[in-house]
Amino acid sequence: MSAGFLAASGDTFTPPGPGDFNLPPVGPDKTFTFLGQEMYLGVTKPMLQIVIFAGLAFAFLYLASRHRAMVPGKLQYVGEASYGFVRNSLGRDIIGSHDFMRFVPYLVTIFFLLLFNNWAATIPFIQFPTFSRTGLVYGLAAISWLIYNYVGIKKHGLLGYIKLQCVPSGVTGPILVLIVPLEFFSNLVVRPVTLALRLFCNMFAGHLLLILFALGGEYLLLHGSLLVKPVGILAWVLFIAVAFLELLIQFLQAYVFTLLNAMYIAGAVADEH
Amino acid sequence: MDGNLNMIGYGLAAIGPGIGIGLIFAAYINGVARQPEAQSRLQTIAILGFALAEALAIIGIALAFVL
């Protein structure tokens, strides 16, 4: 039905797809072939963004902690509150007050890196979520995987650590034949993949939704017949509403990624029961 | 009207995580209503459960584009 309305005015609507995330490089436009795919050779927008926003996160934390006044100013207050949020609710409450301070630098770094890069997707004229490229999230997940396995092996030894991760406490008998491979697969193999995919897909899907509302609204408004033009305006209103929802999701994903990192570390350094 | 059967599949697949997330937050709200001082403790657990249930929907949307 809607196709009939739209077809009245000529050119067709091409819906956004994964190709919209394939931005050309900033510099010279060279390509090479890798595993049968054409790849750009050069610095692309997500690469620039991750460097710039890592710098901004550093600048924010540095400026907020520079003076360390007894009565904090506004910037110091925001810095201390956000640092305290990560340290207390993500570090101390989950890893436990015994040895959480070792991991707080990592957790704070990863939280602010993700938060600044995710919010880049909402800043006008930048509007591209850095972590909607899989290469970057796989890197982060690999770091997380190395860290929690390293601290676990260091504390329990290789065999003790594998036993801790694969044999849930209190399980005995023949059911272990079923449980051990499952736990091994889920705790040591699939974890980094789901960790990476969760962040990537949230950023990817959110950005795709925004592109869809923006392009669809534009198409309905400019190329649709008179009856569907108001729908185009509705699509733009929804675009703004979804953009605000995205702000929440972007924060939540930074929080969840750090939370899961903390939980994995807590599971790796936990004492056997 | 043309489209991709993958998207219908994804729509069906998203029902499960949708119900799951609803149940998680229903339990969270119930818990906070019964015992408001436990909120900070429940919140972490609720968001963790939400993230794990949502992972299924997220993997679904990835596969809807890939397959």
From TrEMBL, chain B:
Keyword field: ATP synthesis, Cell membrane, CF(0), Hydrogen ion transport, Ion transport, Lipid-binding, Membrane, Transmembrane, Transmembrane helix, Transport
Protein location: Cell membrane
Bilayer topology term: Multi-pass membrane protein
Domain annotation V-ATPase proteolipid subunit C-like: ranges: 8-67
Main location class: membrane
Record field: transmembrane: 12-33, 45-66
Highest taxon, organism lineage: Bacteria
Family annotation (Pfam families): ATP-synt_C
Residues the UniProt record annotates as site (Reversibly protonated during proton transport): 54
Listed GO MF terms: lipid binding; proton-transporting ATP synthase activity, rotational mechanism
Any GO CC annotation of this UniProt entry: plasma membrane
Stated role: F(1)F(0) ATP synthase produces ATP from ADP in the presence of a proton or sodium gradient. F-type ATPases consist of two structural domains, F(1) containing the extramembraneous catalytic core and F(0) containing the membrane proton channel, linked together by a central stalk and a peripheral stalk. During catalysis, ATP synthesis in the catalytic domain of F(1) is coupled via a rotary mechanism of the central stalk subunits to proton translocation.
Family statement drawn from the similarity comment of this UniProt entry: Belongs to the ATPase C chain family.
Entries under HAMAP family matching the protein: ATP_synth_c_bact
PANTHER family linked to this entry: ATP SYNTHASE LIPID-BINDING PROTEIN, MITOCHONDRIAL, ATPASE PROTEIN 9
Protein name (Swiss-Prot/TrEMBL): ATP synthase subunit c
Lineage: Bacteria, Bacillati, Actinomycetota, Actinomycetes, Propionibacteriales
Encoding gene (name): atpE
